[in-house]
Design a protein that fits this description.
With about 120 residues, this protein is mainly alpha-helical. Helix content is about 75%, strand content about 0%.
């Protein structure tokens, strides 16, 4: 951690970092609770991917504000970019695999765009 003389902006950065860390931890906890409480595959995936990614971004923002090192911040930005790039793709692939293996109730999907017979061309 780089030594910074205590001042107004250091205090502001520490407060924003603390709020970001708490908000990120809360969103991560909400994602875990949603994964346990929801009953369908698609509802669980929605509960996991949406708040988890935002929670991770807030946690890393708080960490970057607290660490204040350019090399660490660059690494944290790479983690955020890779998370934003891979989370939607993995959620799509899991939902598609769940639909194909019968884990998703087709009647719950309105409209069912995955069914080739239901498509309007």
């Amino acid at each position: 951690m780089t030594e910074v003389e205590p001042g107004f902006w250091t205090t502001v950065a520490d407060v924003v970092a603390g709020v970001s860390l708490l908000a990120g931890a809360f969103l991560t906890l909400a994602a875990a609770v949603g994964a346990l409480r929801f009953d369908s595959l698609l509802a669980r995936m929605h509960a996991i991917t949406k708040p988890q990614v935002l929670g991770l971004v807030l946690l890393l923002l708080g960490l970057a504000l607290r660490v204040r090192s350019w090399s660490a911040v660059a690494m944290l930005v790479l983690v955020v970019v890779f998370q934003l790039a891979t989370a939607p793709v993995s959620a799509h692939l899991v939902s598609r695999a769940g639909f194909r293996t019968g884990k998703v109730d087709p009647d719950a999907l309105v409209p069912n765009e995955m069914d080739p017979e239901a498509r309007r061309d």
